[in-house]
Amino acid sequence: MADIAALTALIEPEVQALGFDLVRLKLFGSGDDYTLQIMAENPRTKQLVIEDCATISRRLSDVLDEADPIEEAYRLEVSSPGIDRPLTRLHDFQEWAGHEAKIGASEIVSGRKSFRGVVNGVDGEEILFTDAKSGDVRIPFALVDEAKLLLTDALIAASMPLSSDGADEFETEE
User: Fold this and answer.
1) Quick check: 90 and 78 in contact, CB under 8 A?
2) Residues forming beta bridges with residue 34, ordered by sequence position
3) 140 vs 160, more confident
4) What is the DSSP letter of 86?
5) How far is CA 116 from CA 8, 54, 103, 141, 147, in A?
6) Closest CA to 115 of 131, 99, 95
7) What mean pLDDT, rounded, does the chain reach?
8) 3-class secondary structure, 38
9) Is 88 in contact with 144 (CB distance < 8 Å)?
10) Over 60: is that where the pLDDT of 172 sits?
11) Residue 75, SS3?
12) Of 28, 92, 130, 165, which residue is least crowded by CB atoms under 10 Å?
């Protein structure tokens, strides 16, 4: 399997050159069924539209074909992080302060490894978090295994789509 740090070093500058931020890079699968998943966002909107995904995909396809950093055959998947997005960078926890999230730690923090509650921001290299069960905790960012926002009405309101063009329209009976 390919080295994720080397893949990130290859891919992130290409994504940034297009004006986007890399949110997450993940290579998963087994045997002859691998997927290289790239999540990116427009730094102004925190979203991508389908044309953005296509632009990133074309650029990365050329770069990956030339560098050939992955020995196995794989599928390239480029997407927006979505509403219930993963929180992968320290500044994500500051930007999404006030929203509910789940955090899994690689080691025990304040007697737990799993947290569910409200992100309160960051202090240095620590995430300030109010866990529903244990109250206020400080979680070292280096110990975050995985984290994602939870789908709530407040998150939906904060993540309104850029445009509803192309969305299905439904007629209702009165």
Assistant:
1) no
2) 29, 74
3) 140
4) B
5) 29, 34, 6, 16, 10
6) 131
7) 91
8) strand
9) no
10) no
11) strand
12) 165
Tokens 């080295």 map to which residue?
3
CA distance 127 to 105: 12
Buried b (16+ CB within 10 A) or exposed e, 55-91: bbeebbeeebeeeebbeeebeeebbbbebbbbbbeee
Coil vs helix vs strand at 142: helix
Residue 146 to residues 52, 80, 142: CA-CA distances in angstroms?
26, 17, 11
For 87-131, how does the pLDDT look when each residue is reduced to its tens digit (9 = 90+)? 999 999 999 999 999 999 999 999 999 999 999 999 999 999 999
pLDDT for the residue 164: 54
* Tokens representing residue 169 in the block: 């329209």
**Inter-residue contact 35 to 75 (CB < 8 Å):** yes
